[in-house]
From TrEMBL, chain A:
PANTHER family: CULLIN. This is Cullin family profile domain-containing protein. One of its GO terms (biological process) is ubiquitin-dependent protein catabolic process. It comes from the Eukaryota. GO terms for molecular function: ubiquitin protein ligase binding.
From TrEMBL, chain B:
Signal peptide: none annotated. Pfam families: Cullin_binding. This is Defective in cullin neddylation protein. Neddylation of cullins play an essential role in the regulation of SCF-type complexes activity.
């Protein structure tokens, strides 16, 4: 027919015929009852498709020639459009179809089993008819009614469940929908329906869930509920600002607990325990972030900044961390494997990094290290050195050069002693043996030089050593550090019991006085020994007032030392140990006044460092305004401490007075470098 | 006498006379007469042994002028003379000052004071006087700072009339604070800038994060605490 120019007639005939036919099909579908509606529709659709195929084949010539030139819709497409217009959009079918589909889905959500294959065919049909048909005639309503459904359900859940249960339910629903889509909906619907679920089940109730009493985020953290936390993380991740919420709540909780810990006066009495608690907290959260929050970097950062925040709230944190290390290196690491030692030291380094006042740590570390080295009380030389290497890597050579100097001095002293005894040993005879550590002044913590009269019994060997040393090292000056030494004394008591007393140098000086007399007053001791009063009193207390170590007896028996007290050699002293340790050279938490003193020294040390930074900066920049100087100085010094802006200003003024800087004559807000 | 003074200035005796020459020699005659009177005035107050006018001499001069020796106008006079040492005037300084003021008698000097005051009040001159007054008070050679007590007196003297309220509070603060026992030139200059630039008593516009001397930061903090 086409060939004979009857294309138009053919085409319109086709349209008419098909339309008529479809109307009949329509009525038959409409007539279908209840559940059979969909099946009927499905069957007729299948038939129609088959028919369309055949028609297309038959009218292929028209399809290829007449239709394009006459700008008509191709046959197949025409067939689909007609199906759409006549059947799907028929008034009786359109709404019924939609309602049926939604009803079935709703049923499935309530636990019913539905014919998924049928569903798939229907939705596929809609897609074939055009994605706009799928959307307009199904998807839009589907999404809306799902939203309504989940809104209600979520409200129900939230009233009746705790956080963990709710999240489980939400997860289940979410997975359901995803599965639903894969089975009988168009793939593009997945993102849309999951959005709906996320919004209704998660987003709307985020705040309430996180803050839920006795089951919310904080509760999960406290209880290490990794599974619940992981679920929360993966669900909230789907929602904008979901993770931010979790992170913020977690952060403020960490900061709160951290702050409580560092301000808890009871806890602070035991520095080692305090630091261990810090490490435990860090471990706890590392584990949570690792197992539940998939090592999320932003969470790691939040944890780090929280630690940095509260560790620095307590100005004694640097001291305590050093005491912790001291405890470990002194005894805590005994018997621990090398790898485990490394792990503990790395953890200490991690805390060190959080410190703002690293220079304070350095000061205490030096003091404690000195005590450890001089008393020979370090568990492992390797561990000590390993930590120094770590500090060097973190802070640079300057930080650790002095510490390394201390180790060198110890070693050198060993060699010196060997040389001494080799050289002079023969002349010594039966006298006391001496062991000297020669300390290079700059490397060791500074000590004020105190007076102290050494007992005559050891004066001669001390002199011999001094002469020996100065003989081999000209141009040096040696000073006995009488507040740092120890002595082992052999003592015989009333009933002939012998003990070996391990005492400090001061204690030795005092005790030796009792070789010549049994009774001495405080004043007499003070005069003879010439030890400063506060040290002497402490020394006498440790010799006379401590149970089990009272080699001296005091009258009166009070705990404090008064100038009028008298001391007696305690004939009746007993101890079950042969060796009695009375000296105290162990590093301890500083008393308040000592702490103040150290802090003052630290402040003094900082002044030249700040000045040096200012001069460096001004030399490079020539002219700079105040704010920028403060910023630059802070940046330069941040690896050691956080400079106080007021102190910076004071230093600038001092530099102006000493004519390193001047105020710019034109703009008095600027400073100028004077060459 | 004239020949002697001509010898001093190294001027040859003028040979051909013109009118300007006449005038010039007349004015040089007058000016040397003036210088003579100035010198004589100097000698009437100076201390014979030191060759300078010393504090006693200045006191006498002041009573002759009917001005108190602690009056700020004496400071201004010293400034005009560019006198180096407080309480002393050298001949050169005396000459410089009186010549500039065109005064060769005590009464002329006294009459010149109001004019001098006006001159000083001009902003550029005042700043100069202000810094001068600090240096003038330094007595030792390497001295760079002045004690608090003296600074308070100086502040009152130099700035008191212009900035009464600020000066009073500043003096009160300086006396009770313990951070600084002396004040240096930088801080001294800061005080003037402060009075000039910062409104009082609200201190709006004062920013301690700028380059103000720390002592002023503390002063403002103290004032603000008082005001609440």
């Amino acid at each position: 027919m086409v060939l004979h120019k009857f294309g138009e007639k053919l085409y319109s005939g086709l349209v008419a015929t098909m339309t008529f036919h479809l109307k009949e099909i329509c009525s038959s579908i409409e007539a279908a009852q209840g559940g059979l509606f969909l099946e009927e529709l499905n069957r007729k659709w299948a038939d129609h498709n088959k028919a369309l195929q055949m028609i297309r084949d038959i009218l292929m010539y028209m399809d290829r020639t007449f239709i394009p030139s006459a700008h008509k819709t191709p046959v197949h497409e025409l067939g689909l459009n007609l199906w759409r217009d006549v059947v799907i959009h028929s008034s009786k079918i359109q709404t019924r179809l939609l309602d049926t589909l939604l009803e079935l889905i709703q049923g499935e959500r309530s636990g019913e089993v539905i014919n998924r294959g049928l569903m798939r065919n229907i939705t596929k049909m809609l897609m074939d008819l055009g994605s706009s048909v799928y959307q307009d005639d199904f998807e839009k309503q589907f999404l809306e009614s799902s939203a309504d459904f989940y809104r209600l359900e979520s409200q129900e859940f939230i009233e009746s469940c705790d956080c963990g249960e709710y999240l489980k339910k939400a997860e289940r629903r979410l997975n359901e929908e995803i599965e639903r889509v894969s089975h009988y909906l168009d793939a593009k619907s997945e993102a849309k329906i999951t959005n709906v679920v996320e919004k209704e089940l998660i987003e709307s109730h985020m705040q309430r869930l996180v803050h839920m009493e006795n089951s919310g985020l904080v509760n999960m953290i406290v209880g290490d509920k990794y599974e619940d936390l992981g679920r929360m993380y993966s669900l909230f991740r789907r929602v904008a600002s979901g993770l931010v919420l979790i992170r913020d709540v977690m952060t403020s909780y960490i900061r709160e607990t951290g702050k409580q810990l560092v301000t808890d006066l009871e806890r602070l009495k035991d520095p080692v325990d305090f630091v261990q608690r810090l490490l435990d907290i860090k471990d706890k959260y590392d584990k949570i972030i690792g197992s539940a929050f998939s090592n999320d970097k932003t969470f790691q950062n939040a944890l780090n900044s929280s630690f940095e925040y509260f560790i620095n709230l307590n100005s004694r944190s640097p001291e305590y961390i050093s005491l912790f290390v001291d405890d470990k290196l002194r005894k805590g690491l005994k018997g621990v494997s090398e790898e485990d030692v490394e792990i503990i030291l790395d953890k200490v380094m991690m805390l060190f990094r959080y410190l703002q006042e690293k220079d304070v740590f350095e000061k205490y570390y030096k003091q404690h290290l000195a005590k450890r080295l001089l008393s020979g009380k370090t568990v492992s030389d390797d561990a000590e050195r390993s930590l120094i290497v770590k500090l060097k890597t973190e802070c640079g050579y300057q930080f650790t050069s002095k510490l390394e100097g201390m180790f060198t001095d110890m070693k050198t002293s060993e060699d010196t002693m060997q040389g001494f005894y080799a050289n002079v040993g023969a002349d010594l005879g039966d006298g006391p043996t001496l062991s000297v550590q020669v300390l290079t002044t700059g490397s060791w913590p500074t000590q004020p030089i105190n007076t102290c009269n050494l007992p005559t019994e050891i004066l001669s060997i001390c002199e011999k050593f001094r002469n020996y040393y100065l003989g081999t090292h000209t141009g040096r000056r040696l000073t006995w550090q009488t507040n740092m030494g120890t002595a082992d004394l052999k003592a015989t008591f009333g009933k002939g019991q012998k003990h070996e007393l391990n005492v400090s140098t001061y204690q030795m000086c005092v005790l030796m006085l009792f070789n010549n007399t049994d009774r001495l007053t405080y004043r007499e001791i003070e005069q003879a020994a010439e030890i400063p009063a506060s040290d002497l009193k402490r020394c006498l207390q440790s010799l006379a007032c401590v149970k089990g170590k009272n080699v001296l007896r005091k009258e009166p028996m009070s705990k404090d030392i008064a100038d009028s007290d008298a001391f007696f050699f305690n004939d009746k002293f007993t101890s079950k140990f042969f060796k009695v340790k009375i000296g105290t050279v162990v590093a301890q938490r500083e008393s308040e006044p000592e702490n103040q003193e150290t802090r003052q020294r630290v402040e003094e040390d900082r002044k030249p460092q700040i000045e040096a930074a200012i001069v460096r900066i001004m030399k490079a920049r020539r002219v700079l305004d105040h704010n920028n100087i403060v910023t630059e100085v802070t940046k330069q010094l941040q690896s050691r401490f956080l400079p106080n802006p007021v102190v910076i200003k004071k230093r600038i003024e001092s530099l102006i007075e000493r004519e390193f800087l001047e105020r710019d004559k034109g703009d008095r807000k600027l400073y100028r470098y004077l060459a | 006498m004239r020949r002697a003074s001509a010898k001093k200035t190294g001027q040859p005796n003028p040979i051909p006379f013109s009118h300007t020459d006449l005038f010039r020699s007349a004015s040089s005659k007058a000016s040397s007469k003036e210088m003579e009177r100035i010198d004589n005035l100097f000698y009437s107050y100076c201390n014979r042994s030191s060759g300078m006018i010393d504090p006693e001499g200045i006191e006498t001069l002041c009573s002759d002028m009917e001005v108190h020796h602690t009056d700020v106008r004496i400071l201004m006079l010293a400034w005009k003379m560019k006198a180096e040492k407080q309480g002393y005037f050298t001949l050169e300084e005396w000459r410089r000052g009186l010549k500039a003021l065109r005064a060769d008698t005590v009464s002329k000097l006294k009459k010149a004071l109001p004019e001098l005051e006006k001159e000083v009040r001009r902003p550029t001159n005042f700043l100069d006087l202000y810094s001068y007054s600090f240096r003038y008070c330094l007595t030792e050679e390497k001295q760079k700072s002045i004690d608090i007590e003296s600074i308070c007196q100086l502040l009152d003297l130099v700035l008191g009339s212009q900035f009464r309220a600020q000066v009073d509070y500043l003096i009160e603060y300086l006396k009770i604070q313990s951070d600084y026992k002396v004040i240096n030139m930088d801080q001294w200059l800061g005080f003037y800038r402060f009075c000039n630039e910062i409104s009082f008593p609200d201190f709006s516009g004062y920013d301690p994060e700028l380059a103000w001397p720390l002592i002023l930061d503390n002063f403002v903090e103290w004032m603000r605490a008082k005001q609440t």
